[in-house]
Amino acid sequence: GENVEQHPSTLSVQEGDSAVIKCTYSDSASNYFPWYKQELGKRPQLIIDIRSNVGEKKDQRIAVTLNKTAKHFSLHITETQPEDSAVYFCAAKYNQFYFGTGTSLTVIP
Amino acid sequence: DVKVTQSSRYLVKRTGEKVFLECVQDMDHENMFWYRQDPGLGLRLIYFSYDVKMKEKGDIPEGYSVSREKKERFSLILESASTNQTSMYLCASSSGTSGEQYFGPGTRLTVT
């Protein structure tokens, strides 16, 4: 089955700096790649997603890039704010969703 | 607004008990999923269902079963709870077309 690896597991940045989280996947049939944000004690919430026919997608301060050839995709957060502090999960989907192990992002004021 | 609800936020059970976790979604989604979330392991799929009375094993189905008698409801059953099933359990649903998954608030199960 699919294997999704996510790095780094923890990330600390200064407020205003950028944060980048990377994921790789193994199954070239995967065609949908969502990113979820999970704040402490809350449910995961979709923040951005990308499909395999698109290379990049942006939504205000967040963007996702997909390299199908290399089988990796990345989440980019610019101008980070303290409220961006959370655990972020990537996932890859063909028939079912496969999740990365999560990145704990801390934005230091 | 999509709403996915779970029957309990916190649950404490004894070893050997039969445990029922229930999930309900109100968006007429075809697909429903049960995950467990453990620190450092991310979300691991236990079972999923693409239709009423249909179920598929995920990556870690051992010790669990599921039931989907109605489209909006997906139940996870721990036949005989064990301490290694202490975890956060998350239910999710998605439509067959968009693929976007919506999660419930989670049930933190402790087995003593």
Radius of gyration of chain B: 13 Å
Termini Cα gap of chain A: 41 Å
Overall geometric form of chain A: globular
What is the CA-based Rg of chain A, rounded?
A: 13 Å
Estimate the strand proportion of chain B: over 45%
- Rounded mean pLDDT of chain A is 95
Q: Biggest sheet of chain B, in brief?
A: 7 strands, mixed
User: Helix count of chain A, per DSSP?
Assistant: 0
Total helical elements of chain B: 0
List how many beta strands of chain B DSSP finds: 11
Distance between the termini of chain B: 37 Å
Proportion in β-strands of chain A? over 45%
Helix/strand layout:
The complex is a heterodimer of chains A (109) and B (112).
Chain A: E1 4-7, E2 10-14, E3 19-25, E4 32-38, E5 45-51, E6 56-59, E7 62-67, E8 72-77, E9 86-93, E10 97-99, E11 103-108
Parallel strand pairs in A: 2-11
Antiparallel strand pairs in A: 1-3, 3-8, 4-5, 4-9, 6-7, 7-8, 9-10, 9-11
Chain B: E1 4-6, E2 10-13, E3 19-25, E4 31-38, E5 42-49, E6 56-57, E7 64-70, E8 73-78, E9 87-94, E10 101-103, E11 107-111
Parallel strand pairs in B: 2-11
Antiparallel strand pairs in B: 1-3, 3-8, 4-5, 4-9, 5-6, 7-8, 9-10, 9-11
Describe the structure.
In chain A, strands 2, 4, 5, 9, 10 and 11 form a six-stranded mixed beta sheet that branches. Chain A is mainly beta and 109 residues long. The mean pLDDT of chain A is 95. Chain A is built from no helices and eleven strands. In chain A, 0% of the residues lie in helices and 58% in strands. By secondary structure, chain B is mainly β. Helix content of chain B is 0%, strand content 54%. Classes of the chains: A mainly beta (109), B mainly beta (112). The interface between A and B is medium-sized, with 21 and 21 residues.
Structural key phrases:
heterodimer, A: 109 residues, mainly beta, six-stranded mixed beta sheet, five-stranded antiparallel beta sheet, 58% strand, B: 112 residues, seven-stranded mixed beta sheet, four-stranded antiparallel beta sheet, globular
